[in-house]
Amino acid sequence: MSKALDKLGLARRHLERVLAAWGAPTDWDDLSLYGFYCLEAAVEAAASCLGLETSKKHWEKADVAIELHKKHGLPDVEQLLRDLNDARKSAAYGDVPAPDLNAEDVASEIEQYVDAVATLVGGA
Predict the structure, then answer these.
(1) Global pTM?
(2) How far apart are CA 5 and CA 22, in angstroms?
(3) What pLDDT, on a 0 to 100 scale, did the predictor assign at position 124?
(4) What's the CA gap between 3 and 102, in Å, rounded?
(5) Which end of the chain has the least Cβ crowding within 10 Å, N or C?
(6) Could you give the CA distance from residue 90 to residue 10 in angstroms, rounded to a whole number?
(7) Contacts of 27 (CB under 8 A, 6+ apart)
(8) For 23, left (φ over 0), alpha (ψ -120 to 50), or beta?
(9) What pLDDT, in 10s, does the model give residues 29-52?
């Protein structure tokens, strides 16, 4: 359970940056980077709590998010993870187009996911 709590704490720290970044003017660099890492840490927290294996590979964490949604009732964030990964790459490398995202919706969806994982981890 310690790993789940550690990952949830990391997700919450990243969430603070997400919530600071989405307002006008939106800081897409921070929103995409910290949003992506926040969701990944939250997925890892939930997976650890449930005894599921995770990976260091971004696309495999998206696959774990699918399982967490389908088998454990967590919100579906698989597409958001993929979109934020592309947004992160766009901001960092400029080698992929940025996805069309709404900053407020992104921040809200991330916050809801972290809250759902906190409920799961807290109830375990």
Answers:
(1) 0.94
(2) 26
(3) 55
(4) 32
(5) N
(6) 24
(7) 20, 21
(8) beta
(9) 999 999 999 999 999 999 999 999
Establish whether the linkage from the previous residue to 25 is cis, with ω within 30° of 0: yes
Here the tokens at position 23 are: 């307002």
Residue in the structure block whose two tokens are 């970044």:
21
Is 2 or 39 the better-scoring residue by pLDDT? Answer: 39
The token pair that represents 60 in the structure block = 């495999």
Alpha-carbon separation of residue 92 from 19, 33, 53 (angstroms): 20, 9, 28
Closest CA to 110 of 30, 50, 31: 31
Centroid of chain to Cα 34? 8
